[in-house]
Design a protein that fits this description.
The structure is a homodimer. Chain A folds into two domains: about 70 residues, Orthogonal Bundle (Arc Repressor Mutant, subunit A), CATH 1.10.10.10; about 40 residues. The first copy, chain A, has six helices and no strands. The longest helix of chain A has 25 residues. Chain A starts with a helix and ends with a helix. The interface between A and B is medium-sized, with 29 and 29 residues.
């Protein structure tokens, strides 16, 4: 996965463990693709301060993932869910009974809410 | 849910965010049901130090759950998975084709690995 996308995922997963200011700066950098001088200007601070904040938060996010592995689990579960839905699709194509087909639709909805 | 069980779940979910010593003390208190004086003796420290550590960790664990809601999500997902498996069981009881039944078994295995 591209690093910027990975960092965005870490940020949306662990953002609640950072301060509001940290999240704002990280979003401007990783989601909105702004440069450090641009973010410094918005926050009325120096490029160096923004650089340090991003570096510190980057380290914190990687540290949380190293310990909790939530992004890793999320990616693994998404693959399992895709696999599940493919199998349900095959099953549905083989079933003619309407009530059973409805039950499969219900099962798919449950999987989507996981 | 009983508080002690809930704290055990928080500890197994967020324990990686605590230090080894904090986890050890919390496990002795919440999982092994030892008293504070007993834990103090094992750790060669005072009852007050253990009391403070448990109080601090308790607050940290509740804080992590408040922000990440992983135990809440876990409980919700377990209910959805139970519901899914019940529906698969009904579906299987209505299907006579052996290949389709095998596909349902496969789907159930996938759900268990979520």
């Amino acid at each position: 996965m591209e690093e910027r996308i990975y960092l965005s995922m870490l940020l949306s997963t662990y953002g609640s463990l950072l301060t509001e200011k940290q999240v704002n700066v990280m979003k401007l950098y990783y989601d909105d693709d702004l440069s450090m001088p641009e973010i410094a200007e918005i926050n009325n601070t120096t490029r160096q301060a923004i650089h340090d904040l991003i570096k510190r938060c980057h380290k914190m996010l990687l540290g949380y993932e190293d310990k909790l592995k939530l992004v890793d689990k999320y990616n693994r579960n998404e693959n399992i869910k895709k696999n599940l839905k493919d199998k349900l699709c095959i099953l549905k194509s083989k079933i003619s009974d309407e009530n059973n087909a409805k039950l499969i639709d219900d099962i798919e909805k449950n999987i989507n809410s996981l």
